Amino acid sequence: MRAKGKKPAPSAPLGIEARVDALAEILRRHELNEIEVEEGGVRIYVRRGGGDAALVHAAPMFHGAPGHAAPTPHAPAPTASGATPSLSSPSSSTDTGDGNVAYVTSPFVGTFYRSPSPDSAPFVDVGTRIKKGQVICIVEAMKLMNEIESEIEGSIVQILVENGQAVEYGEPLFKIKVG
Amino acid sequence: MFKRILIANRGEIALRVIRACRELGVETVAVHSLADTNALHVKFADESVCIGPAPAKESYLHIPAIISAAEVTGAEAIHPGYGFLSENAEFAEMTERCGLKFIGPPSKIMRLMGGKISARKAMVEAGVPILPGTGLLETDDQAMTAVEEIGFPIIIKASAGGGGRGMKIVKDRERLLAQLEVARAEALAGFGSSDVYLERYVEAPRHIEVQVVADGKGGVAILGERECSIQRRHQKLVEEAPSAALDDNQREQLMAVCEKAMRAINYSNVGTLEFLYERGNFYFMEMNTRIQVEHTVTEMVTGLDLVREQIKLAAGEPLSPAFTGRFRPRGHAIECRVNAEDPIKFTPSPGRITALNLPGGFGVRVDTHIYEGYVVPPNYDSLLAKLIVHAEDRHSAIRRLRRALGEFVVEGIQTNLDFHRRLIDHPDFVAGRLDTHFLERFSTENAPAVA
User: Rounded to two decimals, what is the model's pTM?
Assistant: First the structure.
């Protein structure tokens, strides 16, 4: 999700490092040489320069499980007069090199939940060892709670989005150390 | 008025909607596929959501992804643009059911006017002239009897078709039943319904369409006609307003017919009634219940912002005071669609734009989403830009168009700019002698020498 303007992004800002990692992954996946994003007043520019992280696309499992409160729409409320978009000149640049790490990305637009219901424990935490086919989160779309399964084995290094946060297609959700 | 609108489209029309929203003080949410991450509509919207991979089926045509995106961003309304889901009544209905406003007519009217057979019926009842033809053809006998009365040539059309797809021209009796069978199969495969009908085929018509705007509460404005006879395989390439074929009297009559029809079906939002025009007669063809690519030429000769009005109407406002009655055009406007395509084979030419100069100056408008360094993705239609000129009369508009085309530079990919430059110098175009087969003749005359 990308919001513009001077107001902060909808969610608690993601660590720069995690964001860079995620972008590096997108670079590799689409065989791009550079990428630039603006979010919450921070602009990140990433250029390809080594490293080879694998990406895992999560497979959704549909089932209508109520129990979550309806998601609150994220309203970053930027002004309609808006900021001028940038078409050029990166402000910072980072090279990445990250072996043996993979990302689970969101298979569609929706709302991310870490647990099966508001008062139950999260599916996984940082450090949790996960197996193939294990449900690691829920992405709600069109009032359906879709359980997202991991397609890789490994341990969770980082959870990249907040509970209840809106996520877009392809947005990295978990950073996983493969193996 | 809405606080926030999601735009379920891409390219220049997404930008066009963003611009209207900015001027209204409405926030915008862009949706995009992975192929459009660097698209201008994504950069200019207040917020953007990636809704899927490159194929349109999984992104711009994927209804659940678009509705989810509206929900998670708190948008109150969806603008569908043109193409993609803009005439999909199911999408409109789903949007309405999710508590969002669809910026267009109610799904009920979309259904009525979207089906060609039901639209023909509704228009006949409203006193709109149509070509002699049939309703839904249920049996072969019905077809055989109908052609007795209509005479040949006839054209078989798919009820659910549009944009020139799902049509078969039949010139004699012997081929009728075989072609009917093919048409039914193609209609089923292409549009999910084998419903077909037939009507008299007009050999060399002009394509003339009328822009309407209505609020569904008695307010109806008829903004005059556009001529779109310059087409290749039913894809319009050059559009102008007014048509060189009509005098004031004919224009007034045509607008009166359209006004009556729009009142009869209690239309609301913007729409276009398409007609075939031949030897002084108009025949209703179909209605488009959405904003059209060429709405710009009407905007130029009326001075009215159609997209802004669309949004205001969807928000429940009555027709703006400026939109009343039947309009007389002020001056003349012409639009060229600049496409990324091979100038000889007309095949798409995606790739990176390495250099760009857009024309400007008095009376010139360019609606485009391209910029220097932009990579035209291979996944969508090839429209790069709409070049629109406005001048006091047709002759001056052509001169201005020639001047503006001369300033237009796109490098790195192939475009049809040269094609347009030659086309507008053709004596028939200059004289306004147009029909829908103009381009076939033009292309034959201009066929490149093959070595």
Answer: 0.82
